[in-house]
Amino acid sequence: TKWVYRFGNGTAEGKREMRNLLGGKGANLAEMSNIGLPVPPGFTISTEVCTHYYDNGKTYPAELEDQVAQGLKAVEEIVGTKFGDAANPLLVSVRSGARVSMPGMMDTVLNLGLNDETVEGLARESGDRRFALDSYRRFIQMYGNVVLGVEHFLFEEKLEDVKDETGAVLDTELSADHLADLIERYKAVVQEELGTAFPQDPQEQLWGAIGAVFSSWQTHRAITYRKLHDIPEAWGTAVNVQAMVFGNMGQDCATGVAFTRDPSTGENTFYGEYLVNAQGEDVVAGIRTPQHLTIAGKQAQGSDLPAMEEVMPEVFGQLCDVRTLLENHYRDMQDIEFTVQKDKLYMLQTRSGKRTSQAAIRIACEMVDEGLISQQEAVMRVEPQSLDQILHPRLDPKAARDVISKGLPASPGAASGVVVFSADEAEKRAQAGDKVMLVRIETSPEDIHGMHAAEGILTTRGGMTSHAAVVARGMGRACVAGAGEIRIDYKAGTFTVRGETVSEGDWITIDGSTGEVMKGRVPTVQPELSGDFARIMEWADAERRMAVRANAETPEDVATARKFGAEGIGLCRTEHMFFDGDRILAVREMILASDEDGRRAALAKILPMQRGDFEEIFDIMKGLPVTIRLLDPPLHEFLPRETDEFEEIAKDLGVDPAKIMARAAQLHESNPMLGHRGCRLLNSYPEICEMQARAIFEAAVAMEKKSGEAVLCEVMIPLVSVKKELDLLRAVIIDTAKAVAEETGTEPKYTIGTMIELPRAALRAGEIAESAEFFSFGTNDLTQTTFGLSRDDSANFLTDYERRGILEHDPFQTLDQDGVGELISIAAERGRKTRPGIKLGICGEHGGDPNSISFCESQNLDYVSCSPFRVPIARLAAAQAAI
Ligand code: ADP
Ligand code: MG
Ligand code: MG
Questions:
Q1: Which ligand is nearest to the CA of 631?
Q2: What burial class does residue 233 get, using C-beta atoms within 10 Å of its C-beta: 0-12 exposed, 13-18 middle, 19+ buried?
Q3: 3-state DSSP call for residue 883?
Q4: Could you confirm whether 467 is annotated as catalytic?
Q5: Which of 503, 562, 672, 792 has the most beta carbons within 10 angstroms of its beta carbon?
Q6: Cα-to-centroid distance, 187 and ligand 1 (Å)
Q7: Which residues form the PEP-utilising enzyme mobile domain (predicted)?
């Protein structure tokens, strides 16, 4: 079996399409080699080795050692040095690389192959002893931390000691002798921490690093990240071993990162940062303030440091050519990493760049205009989930702002929250229902859970490409990075800036689009949607087969749904209309009534209010279909829980409190979700069904008279499991429609259908369809009842289930396609057999989840229905599912 794939010298055994086997980094290193870009030679150990490693008790395939040795030999031949050779050593980097980039994975180890002997060879060969020693101390630090697990700060302390003792401020000011001294201290740290010496054998170093990459696939960090991003565990990671090039050999050397377009706005400008005389992670680690690539970038951010365009114009020119070449080749915005060694440019990475959703939309539209991609591709380029970012509020421009500091606008959107200083605290408080703002000097992959829990992230160090910035943009969290004047005191739980002190628990607001940090809570307003957004949505609508409706019942929500393009209401929950103000009184009166007459008297009070609600909704929906679900929850939900509340109600209703308490006790159910609710309740009290039907039809007729246009109401019966339940209510509804027609002289236009939310209903869909003109899959209840799993009681163990891989996802968020999905398939098939063309839709939470939407497309459903804010997400997801 072939486990190792080489690249370099203008060719490669791999290519871009082999991402599954070589990981993203390896596949693109191969591709860049193939298209003639200057890539230091190396080889990729495939993801299959990772799979083999975990399937076989953490052991490697037998042929691997030999294939790695051959790969190394090929690199030696190209570079003209030898791995482990004391006179002229080959140094390599060991880099992890999963199919998609994953911050949880092992950090790259640079300068591998250095030891007490080879460092002297490197010094002689390069003619630069300081550079050789600098590389060696970096290697010990990186390898010590990443592979051997010695804590980073133990090395940092030694570095600070040496700087203090010598009066150096920057790392670059340390002389060769200082570095030699530092190396001895580093080695002592390793000896002390591990009880063994730092490994001197380059082969041992290499295999140590390879093993560490594979092991990192199962670290807590990596697992969390995979969970959040839906990355299957079975994918595994590849390992890249690559000849080193050096950005730390002097003033004609540099290292940098860039985006081929602005990842924040999407503007077509070259956007990046670099550092002279630096290596690898120096740019993102925020050790020195990075400099801009372009003069324009430098000016835009008001930086005094010279741009690469000024300092190394020739290499910058080459880099610009690479930018164009890569964009034309990949036809997408790229995120690149490069190093300059002695005025020669080397490409170390390219991948399609993470971007905000604004940027994604703008780039997709502009690339269509530039002729790089088709409209259909443009639709595929915007991640539906990411639209959340632009659909959510920004700061009210008219509101007062108490700006206390400013950092980099690292990820757009506005957010307010109470200050917390650790990821764990962020998670804890968020779980308790607080809105939190995570404030850190900088963030690391260990903080991901806290960043996820936070509304926004504020850091005091690092640039636009720092960890915090990149991850926040990916997650759609607002982020202000590198607010350098803020001083954080983790111990005291405070930060200070411009003489102000802000404590843990205080509210602050950040604006990730301007970089402003404000005291308190600044109100927000809804965003204006750009012309590019409208174009993408229009292209998406052209591709889409399923309709998109919204779950909404308040006039505000219905209006929002329309604004976002909902083509109907898929679920109007009438019980939500029962809680407001006076209504609850009338509802309670109805519940407490001891006979039908009493109930009818109370229902007569509710009727006009409910009719008014429907009129408002029909008015906003202007003839689009509206699915109205009749009363669904158990009655006791409308009764109070506290004793003093009982007394208050008794007074309001002028009855004896004891009577109310007795009735409440009577209504009590030990398992109300499976109790007297939905069509069961309506069948016990058909007068409720009658009142609701009357309110619907009278409103529809009134609207038709007013606008001259018929209103299409879809009356939906919840919780049916037996056809007869539906039949009886159907008769009540039809009779009511007839009565309204007689009274008003106008026939209401309506259909009657049912929710499919119980397994029995799904199985008996064939006969239920005889009486139902449409089905709406209520996947929240269907998930509960298929799994026998209470949504309200499962949160604590579901997390554990996901962690242990018992369930891949929370089935209440992402539809369980295997089980619940099979019931949907069965119901759809049987329903269609009885009634060809029966209208099918979904109205559970899943209707707004892109994954589940793609399942709905596969089942040929007619529409999905979701919460109003998710309508654009669903439109885009439905389009992508259809492409
Ligand atoms: P990440 O996935 O975290 O970006 P990389 O493997 O890309 O990690 O490595 C990080 C940085 O290390 C690169 O951007 C580059 O600057 C540096 N680096 C990696 N390999 C080499 C190499 N062979 N020569 C010089 N620098 C390297
Ligand atoms: Mg990289
Ligand atoms: Mg339900």
A1: 3
A2: middle
A3: coil
A4: yes
A5: 562
A6: 24
A7: 435-515
